[in-house]
Amino acid sequence: MTKVEEAREILTQLQVPKQQQSDLCCYVLLAMAYIQESANWEYASNDWIRIHDIISFTEKNYGVAYAENSRETFRKQAIHHFRNAAFIEDNGLATNSPNYRYRLTEEMLLLITHFGKKDWEKKKTSFLKEHQSLIEQYASKKTMQKMSVKINNSDFTFSPGKHNQLQKAIIEEFAPRFAPNSECLYVGDTEQKDLVKNEGKLKALGFEITLHDKMPDVVLYSEEKDWIYFVEAVTSVGPMDPKRIKELEEMTKNVSAGKIYTTAFLDFKTFKKFSEMLAWETEVWLAESPDHMIHLNGDKFMGPRK
Description:
Elements: H1 3-13, H2 23-33, H3 51-62, H4 71-84, E1 88-90, E2 102-104, H5 106-112, H6 120-130, H7 134-145, E3 147-151, E4 154-158, H8 162-178, E5 183-187, E6 196-197, H9 199-204, E7 218-222, E8 227-234, H10 242-251, E9 258-265, H11 268-274, E10 283-286, E11 293-295
Parallel strand pairs: 8-9, 9-10
Antiparallel strand pairs: 1-2, 3-4, 5-6, 5-7, 7-8, 10-11
Helix pairs in contact: 1-2, 2-3, 5-6
C-alpha cells in the first residue's frame, strides 16, 4: 500500500465517517505525523504545525498542491473532526494568533507508531475504548437531536431540521385543529423517505402511486367527512402552486373523496416569499399562528372542491 492508502486504512479502522477518509484527510494525518512515502509509521512525530505547514508538506512530499486559500476547507473537512476524535489537539492560543498550532495527541502518536505491527489491534482497541469513535459520536449526536412525534398513536422520530420541525407541527398542531380525528396516511422524513405510508388505504381511496410521483409531505384522511388533506411543508421549495395542484390531480384522478390542498409554513416571513406563487382555492397554515388559516378565494372556507 502507498502511504496515503495506509493513512486511509488507519482512519477507517478508527471508525471515522467516509467523508473523513478522503485524500485530503489522509494528507493531514501524514503531515501531522511527518510521514513521507518512504518512512515507517514507527518514526511518526507530533511537532506543532500550522495548516500552512500541512499544505507545504503535502506538495513537497506527495506532489499534491492545495491553494493557501483552501485552509478553511482543511479545517472543516479534517481538523475539526480529528480534534473531536482526539486525534489532534491545538496549543490553546487564539485561533487568529500567528502562533496557533496543531499536533497529534500523545495517545494518537503512540497508536500510529504501532500500525502494521502485531500489537496494532490491541492498541487500537484500547484507543477506541478510551475515545468514542467519530461514527459513534455523530450517531449519538444525531439521536439526541431527533424529534419525537406521535403519529396515529404510535411513537416515531423525525431527524433534525426545519422541514421536519414543520412536519411535526402539522401532525401535532394543524391536524387536531383542522383535521380532527384524521389518520395520517403518509409522511416522509428527510432521512427516511416513507416514514409512514399506508399503501393499502391509499390504493383503496383510489391513489395511483408510481416511483415517479412525488407524494405531498403529509397526507391526512378524515373517514368521518371523507376528506383527504394534502399538506406541503414549505421551508424553501414546493408550495401548492398551480403546477403542483395539476400533478396531484393527476395522481388522484380516481379518488372520490374530497380533496383539500394546504401549504404549511413555519412563519409569516416564509409565507410572504411564496404568497404570489400559491394557487387559488387552496389553504395556508402558519405554525407560528396555529389557530388560524389563510383561505385563498372561493365560495367557502375549509372544504373539498368538486
